[in-house]
Amino acid sequence: MSYLVISTSLREGSRSKIMAKVLAESVKDSEFFDLQNNPLPMCDGDKCYDLPEVIDFRKKVKNAKGIIMAIPIYNFNVSSGAKNVIELGGKMLYDKVFGFICAAGGKSSYMSVMSFANSLMIDYRCIIIPKFVYALKNDFDGNKITSPEIKQRISELGKDLIRISEALS
Ligand SMILES: Cc1cc2nc3c(=O)[nH]c(=O)nc-3n(C[C@H](O)[C@H](O)[C@H](O)COP(=O)(O)O)c2cc1C
């Protein structure tokens, strides 16, 4: 496994998850890791790191060349589940290539992922793919992506993930 696609929304019918699945299907050698089927404990900064599911998750992060996180935007930031992934991943995150797929309720929150990206860049020396996917409800019809622009963005993000990760490896 070279790439990890982490879906962090716990909502049934999640739009970030729908997009993450499309991207994972287009990236050979990727694993789709869904927090809905693989619940992780909230980080306590201590004993959580000894739990088997956290040890296993950290191994997946360590082995990945590049990681895409599918994120619901909550309160002008990433959801707590997404932030928890970083707290559990810790040192395993160093030097990874990261990309983002965001689902939001409104277009004004498009910068919400930036404090999360800053922490990955400055704290963990990650390389952030400087073009992410940001979609709203009206880009979908039920569980189908209807927006050609969003489909195009997902395809580009998958290609950039491979291109940038390969170039740096
Ligand atoms: C607690 C909460 C806070 C939210 N805050 C924002 C916000 O600040 N900006 C925004 O555009 N949408 C916000 N939303 C809407 C979600 O981003 C939207 O429902 C999105 O589709 C969630 O992702 P998901 O479909 O993958 O679960 C919020 C939703 C919830 C439940």
Attribute tags:
169 residues, alpha/beta, binds flavin mononucleotide, 39% helix, Rossmann fold, two-stranded antiparallel ribbon, globular
Question: How does this structure look, described?
Answer:
The chain is an alpha/beta fold. 39% of the residues lie in helices and 22% in strands. The protein has 5 helices and 9 strands, in the order βαβαββαβαββββα. The strands form 2 sheets. Strands 1, 2, 3, 4, 5, 6 and 7 form a 7-stranded mixed β-sheet that branches. A two-stranded antiparallel ribbon has the order 8-9. The longest helix is centred in the last third of the chain and has 21 residues, at 148-168. The chain is globular and about 40 Å long. Bound molecules: flavin mononucleotide (FMN). Residues 9, 11, 14-17, 72-76, 103-106, 109 line the site of flavin mononucleotide (FMN). The site of flavin mononucleotide (FMN) has 16 residues, from helix 1 and strand 3.
Task: Offer a concise description of the structure.
This protein is an alpha/beta fold and 169 residues long.
Helical percent range? 25-40%
Q: What is the tally of helical segments?
A: 5
CATH fold-type name: Rossmann fold
| Low-pLDDT windows of residues | none
The distinct ligands, each listed once, are: flavin mononucleotide
How many domains?
1
Q: Count the strands?
A: 9
The computed structural class is alpha/beta
Strand content: 15-25%
| Average pLDDT score | 97
CATH class: Alpha Beta
Shape: globular
Name the quaternary structure. Answer: single chain
Q: Please provide the ordered H/E string of secondary-structure elements.
A: EHEHEEHEHEEEEH
> Sheet with the most strands?
7 strands, mixed
Radius of gyration: 15 Å
Superfamily (CATH H level) name: Flavodoxin domain
Q: What would you say the CATH architecture is?
A: 3-Layer(aba) Sandwich
